[in-house]
Amino acid sequence: MVNYQIGSIKRSVTQLVILITTLLVAVASVTLSLMYVRDIDQNLRQDTRNLVAYVERNVTPALVFAQPEQADTWLTSLTYLPLVQHVHVYKFEPISESLTFFASFYAEQSSPIPVRYDRAQELSQPVRSERYYEFAKPIMLDGKLLGYVYLRSSRSELDHAIALSTGLTLAAISAGFALSWTLSLWLRRRITQPLDSMVADINAIARNRDYSSKLAEVQLAELDQVSHAFNSLLERIQQHIEKQDIAEQRASELNKELERQVEVRTQQLRAANQDLTDVVDELHQYQHEIVEARKMQSLGRLISGISHEMNTPVGLAVTSSSILQDKLEALATKFNEKKLTSDDMQHFLTSFTENLELVTRNLGRTADIVNAFQQLGLEQYSDSERAITLGSFSQDILQQLHSRYPELDRVHIVIDVSAQLTVRCLAGPLASVISQLFQNSAQHAFHTVENPHIHLHFSFVPDNSSSNHSGRLLIHYRDNGEGIPESISGHIFEPFVTSKRGQGATGLGMHLVYNLVHQVLKGTIEIDPIANHGAAFRISIPVELVAN
């Protein structure tokens, strides 16, 4: 909001008249005073020149005949000239080309002054100082330099003129100020009296709200224009009020009709809201039933997956155990009947070995499936955060995987990360995510690929905050394998989804990765669609950057 300083016409008129009048008088007075002082100064300079010329004419014979006493005698006649203060006559010595003192004069009120050889040669024009004028002129005869006349003249007349002009200027300015004050009072009465009358009438109109009134005519043309303009404004206000009264009356009638319609619509809305509330309650009930149905459906898929995965190895183990039991009974029968030969014994041992290997392998497979289900329990990843350098951290994970999955030895793996990038996060879950991605590629991606390749890229993006330490770790994982089949690409993160069903894969790896990223690391993971063959994933998790 802009604050404007409120002024007064009376004060403005007074100040303007006083300022203009006083300024004009001051300028005129100062100009005349300066011209007067300048004339006095020019007259004194000319008088100084004339005196020097007068002295020159009268002391030249004394210089010619080397009679300083005659020059001193004549110089005493200058006593009757109050303008003269000091006079020196210097003689020029041709042999040494220097000046010597010849004669002098000084007024009774003045003290003698030292010789002014240097000033005599410099003062080609009269020069004014704070106390006097001084001027020097060479004395020439037939083109030869005889000497110099140096004269100091009084500047009392100039000082008197300056004092007189200053006093007159101040007196004129004071008189101009008094005159401007008187003139401003007359103008204030001339201008502000009609204004005061107009303001009083306007206040009365505003107080009584009688917009049919009119302002009286004013003798001043400008104020009379304001009066006519204000009267026109009053007429428009009166017309506007009349139109507003009509509009208010119509608006009142419309409001009554609207109130009636609002009441009807409100009743209809209440009925509709009640119907909607009933529908929402039914939808909530249906939603609850759908959620329960989905839970049961998910539980059914989980049980079906567990049953399917466990059925084959457990069934094979049971079958092998039954065969072993039959073989053992046959062996016991022949042994009791003493019909057991070495060939029979060799046959039984071979059968025992094969069936025991089958039992052991399927029980191991069952144990692996159980272990995979145990990894889905995310409470085991309640690790505390710690600082990890991503380059060495990834290399350690890769070295551990090489011992478990020798097929990774033929894969060209590139880990693209800054050597100094260090973040604080849950290291255990992050290691499980990276390990499972490498394991997934090793098991599914490179069976038909000649030059397998895996690219793992890490980057840090700071948050839009005052601190650059908090942000998100972006992980881009890509291989050039066989890719994700379209039939399972939309369900890749669901449990028991795999393209190697019956070939040792359970379909729980990417489900574990999804749960670790979303629930433990509080991040996101999605499939990154790429133009070339292979599988690619983008992972984003919140971390804190650690300065090295």
Number of strands: 12
| Outline type | elongated
Largest sheet: 7 strands, mixed
Percentage of helical residues?
55-70%
Taking all Cα atoms into account, the compactness measure Rg is 61 Å
Helix-and-strand structural type: alpha+beta
How much β-strand is present in the residues?
15-25%
Report how far apart the termini are.
52 Å
Q: Please write the string of helix (H) and strand (E) elements.
A: HHEEHEEEHHHEHEEHEEHHEE
Detail the poorly predicted runs: 375-380
Mean pLDDT: 80
Number of helices: 10
What labels describe this entry?
548 residues; alpha+beta; 7-stranded mixed sheet; 5-stranded antiparallel sheet; 10 helices; 12 strands; 59% helix; kinase; transmembrane; ATP binding
Gist?
This protein is an alpha+beta fold and 548 residues long.
Describe this structure in words.
This is histidine kinase. Keywords: ATP-binding, Coiled coil, Kinase, Membrane, Nucleotide-binding, Phosphoprotein, Transferase, Transmembrane, Transmembrane helix. Residues 305-545 form the Histidine kinase domain. InterPro entries: CHASE8 (IPR033417), HAMP_dom (IPR003660), HATPase_C_sf (IPR036890), HATPase_dom (IPR003594), His_kinase_dom (IPR005467), HisK_dim/P_sf (IPR036097), Sig_transdc_His_kin-like_C (IPR004358). It is an enzyme of class 2 (transferase). This protein has 548 residues and is of the alpha+beta class. Helices cover 59% and strands 16% of the residues. The protein has helices at 9-64, 68-75, 117-122, 156-208, 221-336, 342-375, 390-404, 427-444, 486-489, 509-520, and strands at residues 84-93, 98-106, 127-128, 132-141, 144-154, 386-389, 412-416, 422-425, 453-462, 470-479, 524-527, 536-545. Strands 6, 7, 8, 9, 10, 11 and 12 form a seven-stranded mixed sheet that branches. A five-stranded antiparallel sheet has the order 2-1-5-4-3. Helix 1 runs antiparallel to helix 2 (68-75), helix 1 (9-64) packs antiparallel against helix 4 (156-208) and helix 7 (390-404) packs across helix 8 (427-444). The chain is elongated. The two termini are 52 Å apart.
